[in-house]
Task: inverse folding
């Protein structure tokens, strides 16, 4: 294959990204990690699964960032995972240091790449990554609402016992406790969920969506989610590689949209070959807009801790 995707971090999220990319046959994969042997071992394991899983993508592991040269997309999953009782914001300082190192190497070895951020705190690390690399804002995007929206979709499907593929959902705001699920823009085969689910149950589903990652952390006890975050990341890769012009909720840099400026936050965007090609401004009611702006204000405060 000619295209290459680099995945930084060979933990559960990174390895799952590598698996899904290979199985989609969209690009060769380079798995990068600082721990010797881990990316090499996981890459070899994935390679040996190829004959059965039906992919021809080349999967390699390395400890040398130089091997990301030529990557069209870099998915950054590197960071300390959340533990029970820990918020995404608790991870801020330690993961900022890791993101700095990753960003410097991306700038050096893959200066023309798009960067998809997965490391938490997602919106803050996406902002930080853009500053470290100096890349145009359209080439640095955070996963954010893509993951939150598919969680919302899964819960809608579970509630109604309908096909997950028939559900659509929209979740804005920060990828954390301040996220803003939008039931008005969430449907099943075009039918608003408000016509299918009671208000009380919708509120419960929205609350579970906001706590989606935390619920998994509490269940696992020693780690955090990885299958769904990886699936969301690869969905974004496909949108860029195939120029799909997908309308997705992603962490994007705002310049006044929704009354928010100079911060990365989850909003609807068009994602295609140009990365973030357009930011969509939905008609939000006062409570929805207030919740989104409140989410942004929270992250704006946290950026001060990083010196921005």
Result:
């Amino acid at each position: 294959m000619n295209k290459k995707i680099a995945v930084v971090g060979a933990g559960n999220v990174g390895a799952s990204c590598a698996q899904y990319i290979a199985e989609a046959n969209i690009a060769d994969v380079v798995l990068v990690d600082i721990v010797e042997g881990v990316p090499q071992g996981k890459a070899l394991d994935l390679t040996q699964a190829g004959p059965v899983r039906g992919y021809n993508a080349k999967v390699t592991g390395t400890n040398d960032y130089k091997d990301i040269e030529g990557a069209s997309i870099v998915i950054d999953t590197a960071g300390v995972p959340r533990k029970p009782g820990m918020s995404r914001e608790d991870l801020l300082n330690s993961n900022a240091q890791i993101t700095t190192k990753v960003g410097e190497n991306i700038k050096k070895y893959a200066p023309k790449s798009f960067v998809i951020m997965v490391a938490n705190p997602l919106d803050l690390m996406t902002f930080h990554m853009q500053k470290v690399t100096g890349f145009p804002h359209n080439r640095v995007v955070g996963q954010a609402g893509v993951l939150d929206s598919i969680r919302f979709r899964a819960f809608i499907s579970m509630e109604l016992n309908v096909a997950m593929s028939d559900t659509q959902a929209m979740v804005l705001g920060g990828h954390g406790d301040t996220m803003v699920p939008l039931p008005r823009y969430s449907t099943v085969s075009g039918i608003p969920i408000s016509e299918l689910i009671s208000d009380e149950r919708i509120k419960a589903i929205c609350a579970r969506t906001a706590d989606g990652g935390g619920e998994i952390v509490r269940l696992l006890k020693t780690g955090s989610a990885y299958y769904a975050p990886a699936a969301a990341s690869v969905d974004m890769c496909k949108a860029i590689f195939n120029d799909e012009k997908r309308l997705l909720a992603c962490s994007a840099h705002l310049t006044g949209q929704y009354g928010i400026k100079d911060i990365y936050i989850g909003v609807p965007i068009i994602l295609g070959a140009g990365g973030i090609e357009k930011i969509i401004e939905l008609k939000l009611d006062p409570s929805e807009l207030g919740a989104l702006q409140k989410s942004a204000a929270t992250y704006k405060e946290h950026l001060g801790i990083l010196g921005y």
Notes: The domain at 4-142 is CATH 3.40.50.720 (Rossmann fold).
